[in-house]
Amino acid sequence: MLHSASAQSAKIAATFHALGDPTRRVIVEKLCEQPQSASLLAAPLGITVAAVVQHLAILEQSGLIRSEKIGRIRTCRLEPSGLKTLEDWVSQRRTLWERRLDKLGEVLDEE
């Protein structure tokens, strides 16, 4: 169980790290629209394809995107399950705080 919790914690940390960079967040937003190649992603960002490839590697390692190479073109697409891990983590914390606020409301209603 500890190994599983540790692996989950590492995955969450990798996801937050990946999304912590504004360029990578823009890339994720663009991939939400449709799959794209590194060169298509680079043009509007004003950075080199090599720089985009480095960002894509971090996003792929975190599980947020996946890529496939067909011929000379590597196409990247959003991996929805990568966001699910983060969504679950946030949801657990939100539920905890909602319970605490509900208890506080009950205490205040009693007074």
Keywords for this structure?
alpha+beta; elongated; 111 residues; Arc Repressor Mutant, subunit A; 13% strand
List the helices and strands and how they pair.
Layout: H1 2-19, H2 22-33, E1 36-37, H3 38-45, H4 49-61, E2 65-70, E3 73-78, H5 80-110
Antiparallel strand pairs: 1-3, 2-3
Helix pairs in contact: 1-4, 1-5, 3-4
Rounded Rg: 19 Å
Structural domains: how many: 1
Q: What is the string of SSEs from the N terminus onward?
A: HHEHHEEH
Looking at the structure, the CATH topology is Arc Repressor Mutant, subunit A
Short description:
With 111 residues, this protein is an alpha+beta fold.
Protein architecture, described:
With about 110 residues, the chain is α+β, with helices and mostly antiparallel strands. The chain has one domain (about 1-110): Winged helix-like DNA-binding domain superfamily/Winged helix DNA-binding domain (Arc Repressor Mutant, subunit A). Helices cover about 75% and strands about 15% of the residues. It has 5 helices and 3 strands. It has helices at about 1-20, 20-35, 40-45, 50-60, 80-110; strands at about 35, 65-70, 75-80. Strands 1-3-2 form a 3-stranded antiparallel sheet. A hairpin with a 2-residue loop joins β2 (about 65-70) and β3 (about 75-80). α1 (about 1-20) crosses α5. The longest helix has about 30 residues, at about 80-110. It is elongated. It starts with a helix and ends with a helix. About 15% of the residues are buried. The model has no long low-confidence stretch (mean pLDDT about 90).
